[in-house]
Every structure is written in C-alpha cells, then in structure tokens.
Amino acid sequence: MVDKDPCGLLKGTPGYDYCRSDHQPGGGHSSPGAGGSSVTDGATDNVKDLADSLIKKLIGLVAPKNTWAPAKSDNALYEPFLWLGQHLAVAIFVSVVVVCALTAWQGAPRLRQMGASTGWALVAVAGMGAVPGVVMLLNRAVSEAFTAAFNSNESTLFTIIRDDMDHGADADNPVAKLLIIAALVVALAFAALVFMTRQIGVLIFVCMAPLVLASLARGGDTSAVKAWATKLLGLMFAPFALLLLSPFVQLAKGSLAVDAVLLVAADALMLRMIFHGVPYFGPKVARGARAFVENRTDSRLARGVVRAGAPDVYERENAPAKLRTVDTPGRAMNQDRGVLFAAYGGTQRNRGGQLTTASTIRQVRERADRTAALTRERQRARDAGRTQTANPPAPAAGSQRTTPAARRPGPRRTPNPPGSGQTPNP
Question: For 121, 130, 321, 391, which has the most beta carbons within 10 A of its beta carbon?
Fold first, then answer.
C-alpha cells in the first residue's frame, strides 16, 4: 500500500510548504513520525533562542556599552555647560587676583593664594574637557567586566543557564523551561528600570561636571568634587552588586529551577542597586516599583522579593538618630548644594530636619499598639501606688513595736545622806 502524502490536505495553503519541509527535509519523503520530532526540536530551538536573546538584552540593559551621556566635549548637549563652567572658573580666578592685588601688603599668604588659584583654575578647565571621555572609557570597562563576570565561561551565571537548558536534570521538563523564561522576563523588567535610572543619572552628573569643577578655581577646595565623584562612581559601578550571586552559581548548576531562584535573587539586588546607587531619587523609584508590584499581585514570593530590594524606611527631613531614615530628594539636593556653595566660598544655613508627614503618620500607626500597652502599664502602676498609700498594710499578729534598750523596773535606790560615813550601796 502506497503511503499517502501527510501534507496533501494542506495543498493550496501557506502551511503546505512548512509541512513538506518537515516531512521531506532533503527533498525525499521521510518516515511518518519524523514530522512530530522535527516540530518538537524546532520548538526547543525556539525556546533556546528566546532565552539567548533575553540574556543578551539583560546584559545590555544592566551594563550597556554606550551611555546617553556625551562622549566628547564638543557635544551639542555638553557645550553650554562647558562654556558656563569655563567662564565661571575664569571669573573666580580674576576675582581672586583682584583681591590679592588689593591686599598685597599681606605678603606671602596672598601670593600663595594666587598661585593656588592659578594652578587649580587650569586643572578645572582641563578636567571639564576630559570628563566625557573618561566617563565613556569607564563605562566600557564596566560593561566588559560585567560581561566577563556573568557570560564568559562555564562558571558564570548566564552560561550555566544556557548549558542547563541542554543538559540540566530538568532540561526535558517544559515547566522548568517555562519557569526559567518567566524568570528571565521578570529580570529583564528590573534591568530596564536599572538601565533608565543609571543612564539618566550618568547624563545629569556628566553635564553637572563643569559647574562642580569650576569651584576648584577658588583655591582647591575639593569637597564638592569629592561628593560629585562619589555619586557618579556609585552609578557607574552599581551593576557589580550582582557579583554577590557568583559564589552560588556553581550550586545552581544542573537545574533550571535553581537557576530561576538565582534570577529572582538578582531581581532583588537590582532593586537594591537603584535604592542605594541612584542619588536623590533612588529610594523613591525603588519604593515606587515595590508599590507597583504589591498593588498588582498577592504572591508572597513577589512581595518578598520587592521588599528585600526596597525595604521600609522613614524619609528624613531631620529625624531622630535611632531611626532608619533616608533623605527626601529636596533635602539631599539641598545638602549637596550647600557643599557646592561652601566650595565657592558661600555659606548656607543648615536646616533642622524632621520626619515627613507621611512618615510621621506611619510611625505613629506602627507604634500605636506599643504606646497603648505602655500607657496601660503605667496607669496600672500608678493606681497600685495610690491604693497602697491610702490603705497601708496592718501589722502582723503578735508583733509589737519595741523601743530600743527598754529598761526593766527595779528597786529604787536612794543615796546616803551626807555625813553619815557610809558609802553608797553598790
């Protein structure tokens, strides 16, 4: 009996050629079971390709090779800030020279001040032009280092995930593959949030560089430059927080389910990167992502992950010392503005801080039970003290109050009259 064409019913439809390619890969007719096997293999390959593309996009978002910040000093976005910073540095230098000339009678101190201002003004102007290139090179180094740490050899996280999809203990389990794909997609969402916050932060801090470096022209006060560099480097090196997962990579090898657990831990770490690494607005963005997740799911796992990445804190305007607090964006910017003004020679009054209204309300609610319990105990202790004072305890039966050294009554002794010649009785 001649085998019928299994694709004959599809003639005239777009699926006919696809069916023929499965059953006749080399132009010849294959066995009846080969079609199903080919379809299964094709689906497996599609899943692998999807995982590879997600991993590549994940690396590209967490540690991209290029930034939104200008790469050269002649960039149209950077040029206005560069012009302003250079003219500000020159104006400060001229002001210092004029002051030193008017007070030249003071001698050596003014000469030293003028020399320091001259040198630091040149350093500031040169640094303004070098900042974009330095940031670009540093970003490439961070990207390459991150790729080497997570996708370079058989002992890195993403390479192990690819290997486990082929040779893992649960590689043939479709649920395990679905789980790892879902974990990669969720991780990709957090990576996109990291990408947006880091890129915007780096762009802002690079554009701020001329205004901060111009403060050096006054005489070398580096406090503002240190604060600026600390926050910029924190943004640049934030992806290395994921290195905390490296010791556990070998433990996850061989199981897609454990790989998914590591990716969930990576989500919490990426949220922490935003919370601690992004200046000013990092805590608000991280807690906003947490609220977004908590309002849309009842999963304990999802809520636990976002709470680990964005913990409960009090926002501080000026808070008690023992509370775990973070500054509001306005207070944080005001403090750094004060550092910058001080570098320029100005002064800024330090504003006393206090908890924000929302944090105060939350603190009162959280401490309401404890406060009520303490109030009840104190009232109970007061009532007991009043009762004891009003009704003193009666003395015990058989007990008497004794006076010290009570004498027993004895015979009365009278002294001998004088002149009797007798001595008194002993």
Answer: 121
pLDDT tens column, 334-393:
878 877 877 777 776 666 666 777 777 877 777 787 788 888 888 888 887 777 776 666
d(CA 387, CA 385): 5
Distance CA 213, CA 85 (A): 8
CB 356, CB 328: distance < 8 Å: yes
pTM score, whole prediction: 0.63
Continuous segment of H or E residues that includes residue 376: helix 368-390
The CA-based angle 284-230-191, given to 5 degrees, is 45
Handedness of CA 32, 36, 37, 41 (dihedral sign): positive
Q: Would you state the pLDDT for residue 80? A: 92
Q: At what angle do helices 174-213 and 223-236 cross, to 10 degrees?
A: 160
pLDDT for the residue numbered 269: 87
pLDDT of residue 333: 83
Do the Cβ atoms of 365 and 357 come closer than 8 Å?
A: no
Q: Rounded to whole angstroms, how far apart are CA atoms 186 and 194? A: 13
| Cα–Cα distance, 189 to 303 (Å, whole number) | 16
CB atoms within 10 A of CB 346: 10
What pLDDT, on the 0 to 100 scale, is given for residue 33? 44
DSSP class per residue in 36-101: HHHHHHHHHHHHHHHHHHHHHHHHHHHS-SS-SS-SSTT-TTTHHHHHHHHHHHHHHHHHHHHHHH
* Beta-sheet pairing, 314-316 with 325-327: parallel
Please check whether residue 151 is in contact with residue 158, taking contact to mean a CB–CB distance below 8 angstroms.
Answer: yes
Q: How confident is the model at residue 426, as a pLDDT? A: 42
Distance CA 195, CA 66 (A): 11
- Euclidean distance between the first and the last CA atom of the chain, given in angstroms as a whole number: 156
pLDDT under 70 in the chain at which residues? 1-6, 9-10, 12-45, 316-324, 348-354, 390-426
- Residue 125 half-sphere exposure, CB side, CA atoms within 13 Å? 15
Rounded to 5, what percent of the chain is helix, strand, coil? 70, 0, 30
Are 260 and 301 in contact by the 8 Å Cβ rule? The answer is: no
Distance of CA 419 to the CA centre of its chain: 111
Q: Work out the number of other CB atoms within 10 angstroms of the CB of residue 284.
A: 17
The pLDDT of residue 210: 93
Note the pLDDT of residue 67: 85
